C-alpha cells in the first residue's frame, strides 16, 4: 500500500516542528539538542506512540551522509582562522592519532565484553571514535559559560576534522571483514591515499570555489548560497570519485572560505548555518526512527561498560598521549578528555556494517546507539559542572545582536565594525562633530546599555558606548586611534 505524499509531508513537518519547539527544552535544562531530536525520533518510531515503521539502514545512511556533508562544511566556514591557527598542531594530532588510539582501546575491551574477534572489536571502536563538541558548546551557551583559550578553538577544530578519520577506519575494517583481499597492512597506504587526495581535492576546490563565487556576477544575492550548495556537493563527489576522503575535502573548502575574502560571505554563512540545523534535525530524527528501543535492553550491561571505558579510559589516554608535545596543563587536558562527547556520526557509521552484511552488525548498531545516549546523558549534562570544577570556565561573551548589518559585496570598500569607547577616552563627553571623524567613516549606530541610539552630529559620545562604524580600513584605523587615545590626567 502506497502512502499518500500528503501524509508523508505532514509527518515530516510535524516532526521537524516538534524538534524545533522541543529545542527550547534543551536550552532550559542544559541538554544537548541531539538528545531531544533522537528522543522525538524514537517516540515517533514503530515502538513509540507515533507508530512510524522505519527499518531502512540504506536510506538512513544516505540521509546521514548528505547531512554530514553540509554540517561539516558549515563547521569549516564558521571556523575562525586566527583562533585555530595556534592550535593546528594539537588539533590535527587529536583528529588523527587520537581517533586511532580511541578506536584501539575501545576495540580491545569490546573483544572481551562482546566475545568479538579482534577485527570486529576494532570496527566497533572505530565507529565510536569521533567526537561532537558542537553539542557541548550548545550546553555551555545555554548556561552562559565559556572555556578558556585555547580549549574552545581546539575542541571546535577537533570535532570538525576528526570525522574523516573515523569514516576511513570504519570503511577499512569493514572491507577487511568482508573481503579476502583486504588486510591490516593495506590500511596504511589506503590512509595516505584517502587523506592525501581528500586534502588535495579540498585545497583545489577551495581555490576554484572562491574564484567562482567572487568572479561570477549573479543578478541576485540569494543565488550565491545556492551556488555554494553545488560547489560543496561537487567537492565531495570529486574527492570520492578519486578515492579520496570527501568529508575532509568539504571541511577544507569551508575552512578556506572562512579564511579568505568571499563576496556576500555573511549571507552564505547564515544560509549554511540554517541548512546545517535542518540537516541535524532530519538526521537525528531518521536515526531515532531507525532504532528499536526494546533491542537496547539486551545490550544495557555491555553498553554501560564500554561507555565507561570510552569516557574514563580510551578518551583520556588518547588526549594525554597526543598532547604530550604541546604546552597544555593537566586541567586543560582533563577538560578536553571530558569533552569527548559522542554524537550522530557514530550512529550513522553503525549503519555501514548493517549494509555490508557484517555478522555482528545488529549488535554493533545497538551497542553504539546505547553508548552515544549514555555519553550524551552523562557528559552532556555535567560539562558545565566539570568546567567549573577544573577552573577552566570563563563567562560566555555573547556578541550583541544589532539591528543593522551589511554584507560583503564586490565594489564596496567598507565594512561594519564595532568599536568600544573606553571610559577614559579622549572623545568621551564630546559630540560627534568635534571628534574629527575621517571622511571614509560613518558612525551609523550607538549601543548604550540596553538601548540603541541613532547618532547625529550633535550626539555626545559616552564612555562604555559601542559604536558601529561603516568604514574602509585606513580611515577605520585613524578613528580607532582617536577613540583609543586616553584623556590627559
Model description:
By secondary structure, this protein is mainly alpha-helical. Helix 3 (57-77) packs parallel to helix 12 and helix 10 (187-215) packs antiparallel against helix 11. It has 19 helices and 6 strands. The mean pLDDT is 86.
Which features characterize this protein?
489 residues; mainly alpha; Na+/H+ antiporter like fold; 4-stranded antiparallel β-sheet; 19 helices; 6 strands
List the helices and strands and how they pair.
Elements: H1 5-28, H2 33-44, H3 57-77, H4 81-84, H5 88-114, H6 118-127, H7 133-142, E1 145-147, H8 151-161, H9 163-178, H10 187-215, H11 223-241, H12 246-259, H13 265-290, H14 293-296, H15 300-322, H16 330-338, H17 344-356, H18 361-390, E2 393-395, E3 415-420, E4 441-448, E5 451-453, E6 466-471, H19 473-484
Antiparallel strand pairs: 1-2, 3-6, 4-5, 4-6
